[in-house]
Amino acid sequence: SGIDLSGNSPEAVMALPGLNPFSTAAAGAFLLSLWNLSWVMRSFKESLPEEERGKAHRAGRPISPLKLFRGFDIPGVTRTNMVYFLFLVAFAGMEFTLTFLAKDRLDYTSHDMMWIFIFVGLIIALVQGGVVRRMAPKLGEKKVTLCGLILLVPGLLITGTAQTGGMFYLGLAFLAVGSALATPCLTALASLYTPSDRQGEVLGTFRSLGALSRAVGPIIACAAYWRLGSEYPYYGAAALV
């Protein structure tokens, strides 16, 4: 006996060990990432000549994640890095517990979860593609970032305490707009503050802090969610922002 794959029907394929309805999305993301990596390796060259690279590039990279928090001697950079780290700790924690909250409090199914991420994704795409590029030249990246961070606070509080689908989606709208404003403008600030010969060092640290925050945020948020209650990660994230 064994698994019958005759006809290669979706049911037969999904009967393979380890596969589930989410495997298709994971496989698609893997293939897109692989294509993106191949494209970058083939099409992008180092833009900064060796002789113009900063001393930090030749000195090597720190191994300890804690060294990412070292201060830079460039005005504005350290502050921007810390704001970005704390913002993403809060946002990553929210992202990771959002489906738990939707299931536990609103009894959402996996199909309902799909609409959550479509809703958030569309708002982020529209705001980043149409609003940020018009606001930033007029107001400046710092003010747009502040607007985004301010919007995150009611978004976190409304989402974390929502008892109905309408309030839940209202909170998500605040979160989507806030993150869409803050994320690109924080990146722009880090770049604008940095001289050309240290762009790689500073932006590399900036991105590394973002990756670290996406590891730390879910751990803290999930611990708070399951030990204290579903609303507490959102209270904590709002206070952090």
General description of the model:
The chain is mainly alpha-helical. It has two domains: 6-43; 74-240, Growth Hormone, Chain: A (Up-down Bundle). 74% of the residues lie in helices and 0% in strands. The chain has nine helices and no strands. Helix 5 runs antiparallel to helix 6 (141-161) and helix 6 (141-161) packs antiparallel against helix 7. The longest helix is centred in the middle third of the chain and has 30 residues, at 77-106. The termini are far apart. Mean pLDDT is 85; it is low at 1-6. It is found in: Membrane. It is a multi-pass membrane protein. Pfam families: MFS_1 (PF07690). Keywords: Membrane, Transmembrane, Transmembrane helix, Transport. GO terms for molecular function: transmembrane transporter activity.
Roughly what fraction of the amino acids lie in strands? under 5%
Mean of all residue-level pLDDT scores: 85
**Number of distinct beta strands:** 0
Q: Name the CATH class of the largest domain.
A: Mainly Alpha
CATH topology of the largest domain: Growth Hormone, Chain: A
Stretches with pLDDT under 50, minimum 5 residues: 1-6
Tell me the major beta sheet. none
Overall body shape: globular
Strand and helix order: HHHHHHHHH
Quaternary organization: single chain
CATH superfamily label of the largest domain: MFS general substrate transporter like domains
CATH level-two architecture of the largest domain:
Up-down Bundle
InterPro entries: MFS (IPR011701), MFS_dom (IPR020846), MFS_trans_sf (IPR036259)
Transmembrane segments: 12-35, 82-102, 114-132, 144-162, 168-193, 205-226
Protein name: Major facilitator superfamily (MFS) profile domain-containing protein
Membrane topology: Multi-pass membrane protein
